[in-house]
Amino acid sequence: MEVLVPAFLLALLAQPADRPALLTAILADRFKRPISVALAAGLAHGIGSVLAALAGAAVGPSLTPEAQSLLLAVALVAGAVTGVIRAKLPSRLDRWRFGPLVTPLLGVFVVALGEQTQFFTFALAAGGTPWLAAAGATLGALVVAMVAATLGEAGWTRLPLRWLRFAASLLFLLAGIVIGLGALRLTG
């Protein structure tokens, strides 16, 4: 259970700054079915989280506990760096005619590949309990997708996402430094 809550919180903090949430809001407006779009986006995040967790589970046993902690520290610092970079507007997928379930499922899955939430999930899964890491990340991303879909593009872009992105990046940086110093045994 010790990775479920961190994975949830990391996804909850990272997702508002990432492109999948904005794409979810755009598609919810387009299809006028916010719940369907949010659930499809949540499923896309779930698939990506499971893949990241499987990769973490494959790598984790070959790492020492210190290396596992260092991997998480690197993920947090990388998340802090990418969090301050403004996400470009994703393609609106105007030419995709797959409907309100398949379009957000495929679109969000593709846009979310390699985003910071998946890196966090990978690092947490490498430390153990990959299914809980995937579940926590999926739930956190689903909460953000629900809010984005409910608000729509206009409501989502009115949120103070820039300040949230900077605050989350600062938290990621501080946590990454503390965990990294502990992994390197540079703290008492």
Order of helices and strands: HHHHHHHH
**Beta-strand percentage range:** under 5%
Mean pLDDT: 93
Cα end-to-end separation: 26 Å
What value does the Rg take, in angstroms?
Answer: 16 Å
Q: What fraction, in percent, of the residue positions are helical? A: over 70%
Low-confidence stretches: none
Largest sheet: none
β-strand number: 0
Helical segment count: 8
The overall number of domains is 1
The gross shape turns out to be globular
Computed structural class: mainly alpha
Organism: Sphingomonas gei
InterPro entries: GDT1-like (IPR001727)
GO molecular function, one term: metal ion transmembrane transporter activity
Main location: membrane
Protein architecture, described:
With 188 residues, this protein is an all-alpha fold. It has one domain (4-183). The chain is 78% helix and 0% strand. It is built from eight helices and no strands. It has helices at 4-14, 19-31, 34-59, 65-83, 99-112, 116-126, 130-158, 161-183. The radius of gyration is 16 Å and the shape is globular. The protein starts with a helix and ends in a 5-residue tail after the last helix. The mean pLDDT is 93. It comes from Sphingomonas gei.
Outline:
Pfam families: GDT1 (PF01169). This protein has 8 helices and no strands.
Relevant terms:
188 residues, mainly alpha, 8 helices
